[in-house]
Sequence to fold (364 residues):
Amino acid sequence: MQQPTHAIVPPYLLARIAAADDLRFPRATAAARRSLLRDAPLREWRSAAERPPFLLPEHPARDERPTAGPGLAPAPDRRVSDAEGEERLPGRLVRREGQPPSGDRSVDAAYDGLGETFELFARVFSRDSIDGAGMPLEATVHYGDRYDNAFWDGERMVFGDGDGEVFRGFTDSLSVIGHELAHGVTEHTAGLRYQGQSGALNEHVSDVFGALVEQYASGQDADSASWLIGEGIFTDLVEGRALRSMLNPGTAYDDDVLGRDPQPDHFDRYIETDDDNGGVHLNSGIPNRAFALAARELGGFAWEGVGRIWYDVLTSGRLRPDTGFRRFAAETVRAARERHGRDSREERAVAGGWSTVGIEVPRE
Ligand SMILES: [Zn+2]
Fold:
C-alpha cells in the first residue's frame, strides 16, 4: 500500500512545469511529469473524506509522556539510507548515528539537517524527537530518477535529487528538512487534518518549524531572517528565491515557466479549491504572514518568542483535527496571554499579526 506523503513541492507547481512546452527545461518537464504520475493516485486518495485510521486517529495522540528535561540530554538516533535512484524505501542504510561523513553530499546534508532539527526541538522545546519519545530520525536520499520532491511518509523523510534544471535538489535546504519533520510532530500532537483550513494550518506549522530550524542553526534573529521556505532549491535558471515567503506570501517566485507564486497574504483572498487538498500549500500563506509579522514585532530570536507560543498551542490538546484559522488564531493569543500575561507585548504582537491578515481575535 502506498504511504501517504507530505510533499514540499505542491502539485500546482509540478503541473506548471509538466505543462510547459518550453524547450528551456526539457529534463525538468519530463521529471515533473513523472513526479505527477507517481503522486497522482496518492493525492486522490488523500483528498477522500475517509482517511485511514493510522493517519488520523479518532482521538489524536497527545503527548502525555513527560518531555526530557535538561538533565536527560536527549540525543538523536539518525539513520540515512540511499535509494540509489530507485523508488524503493527505505533503500540501503549508509550512515547511522555517530558514523563519520560518508562523502556523499546528499547523505551528509540529510544527516546534518536531521540533527539540526532534532536540536531545535530538544533544546528549545524540550521535545525528544518527533514523537516526544526518542523516535529514530530516518531519511532516504537519491530517491527515484531526478525526482522533483521531498516528502514525509509518516515514518521517514524522502529526498529526490531534483531534475537539475528547475530544482537543484532538496537536501541542502534546512527549512525543507525542518518542514517535513514537523509534519511528524503535528501528527503526534494536534493531528490537524490535511484538508482545507486545518490542512493549511498543518502546512503552516511545518513552515513555522522549518523556518525556526534554519534560524536557530544560524543564530538569526527575526529581523535578519529571510523567512523563506526552500531557499536555494531552485537553480539559477529560474526566477525564484524559494518555494514560499512567510513574511510576504506571493513573492517567492515569478517565472515564465513556474508562473507567479500564488499564495494569498490576507484572509479576504482565501482560495477555495479542490486541488492541493483544498489549497493547503496556498492558504498557509495567511497564517505564515501572521506568524512572521508577530515575530518581527517582538524582535529577537523567533524560537524564543512566538515559536514557544506556537509550540504551546500545538501541544495544548485544545486543537481539534478540524480546527480552522479563527480558532487557531484565538488559541495562539490565549497561549501568549497564558505564558506572558494579559495585555503583554507578546499577546498584542500575536493579535496584531492576525489582525493584519484579516483575522480579528476578540480580546477577553
Ligand atoms: Zn508540507
In short: Residues 41-70 have pLDDT under 50 and may be disordered. Residues 14 and 36 are 7 Å apart (CA to CA). The chain has one domain: 6-356.
